[in-house]
Amino acid sequence: MNVITNHMPTDELQRLDAAHHMHPFTDGADLAKTGARVITGADGVTLTDSNGHKILDAMSGLWCVNIGYGRRELAEAASRQMMELPYYNTFFQTTHVPAIALASKLAELAPRDLNHVFYAGGGSEANDTNIRLVRHYWMQKGQPERNIIISRKNAYHGSTLGGGSLGGMSGMQTQGVPVIPGIHHIDQPDWWSEGGDMSPHDFGLERARQLEKAIEELGAHRVAAFIAEPVQGAGGVIVPPDSYWPEIQRICDEHGILLIADEVICGFGRTGHWFGSQHYDIRPHIMTIAKGLSSGYAPIGGSLVCDEVAEVVNGAGDFNHGYTYSGHPVACAVALENLRILEEEKIIDRVAAETAPYLAEKWQGLTDHPLVGEAKIVGMMGSIALTPHKDSRAAFAAEAGTVGLHCRTRCFANGLVMRHVGDRMIIAPPLVITKDEIDTLIERAVTSLDETYDLIR
Ligand code: PLP
């Protein structure tokens, strides 16, 4: 067999990659021309690529490496579990210790009575589970016509057919989704782009009340659930106005519909709380979890379910749903070790008390830059809106995303992973980032913004 290693020349790795590897969310033709960036190692908050460049990863991989790279304890937990029991399923009245231990730990950490977990391989699968769970629940309650799930435009809930249908991103909506009937989208609470002349407060209320309007138009007896990320992540770290979530909670309560908080990004410390729902004082019936659950060291996700929904579903015979890797023992063992580290090392407490306020101050300072309109940040997730004219919140004359892409390219060249969503630049660094590393992040961001500004002037 041809052995392919880190020591091969970069261009040869890129050639093989382009020839045989189809990448997610990537233009394959572009990739064949430029070659992928080959990452060969990582430690703490820093990546190394195949040319030996060191890059500060201000995106935690894909919003997931909350405890940072290179923690031996997680590798050891995986190795121990692989030796003891590498796999067994959790179907047909079977279980194992890692699945039990993680479920118990999650019940302890989760807010309110979210005491039950249905495991999945990641966030998309968990959201597919949620579609089935809520429809099955209402069916068992004798209300089968309650099967519509309301979601939001520009939301991201995954890439399976279910997750993609729940999500509201235009780029995905034209490529084979939505395919699931009974999903309705309302507008997002993005004041910068869509708020017009309204104050953020009034705009937040207006966007929340779209939920009430949709419920009235569709018929309250037909609406099963509302799903939303506490802070939209992939949509561009859209931090909702303060008026938004209390109004959403009121509407869900008054109309008796289930609230699903998609915590795939916000969960496990990202907002400075264990869950984004705690940051916004939301009381969800179901929470989608993944990513930070294992800090990305093993693929695992799940649905955390409240007592009422779990009792109805558990009391209704077989729930004909599950994945081969639901509650995979190695992934559960790794997640458990990750939660132990988050808790024992008080990582989330430190984010809330020290590093998030420090980052927030520096991040807000970026609005002094001529290209930056607004800067938003919650805990360890932030965004800046690039604009040619701050007061009018105007978009650039160039096609949306062109300036953002320039900026992202300059960031890479300057040793920083900062992602662009259109012309918003976003960060979500590992929760273990230090104040010195935050200084480096900001310095490299400013250099990249300066270079982008020079390029478009
Ligand atoms: N939900 C949210 C809020 C996400 O951000 C993501 C992924 O980015 C998903 C669901 C899908 O998770 P996965 O990629 O693990 O399937």
TrEMBL record:
Q: Which InterPro entries match?
A: Aminotrans_3, Aminotrans_3_PPA_site, PyrdxlP-dep_Trfase, PyrdxlP-dep_Trfase_major, PyrdxlP-dep_Trfase_small
Q: What is the required cofactor set for this protein?
A: pyridoxal 5'-phosphate
| CDD domains attached to this UniProt entry | OAT_like (cd00610)
Q: Which residues form the signal peptide?
A: none
Q: Which Pfam families match?
A: Aminotran_3
| Keywords of this entry | Aminotransferase, Pyridoxal phosphate, Transferase
The GO terms describing molecular function are: pyridoxal phosphate binding; transaminase activity
Q: Which family does it belong to?
A: Belongs to the class-III pyridoxal-phosphate-dependent aminotransferase family.
Name by which UniProt lists this protein: Aspartate aminotransferase family protein
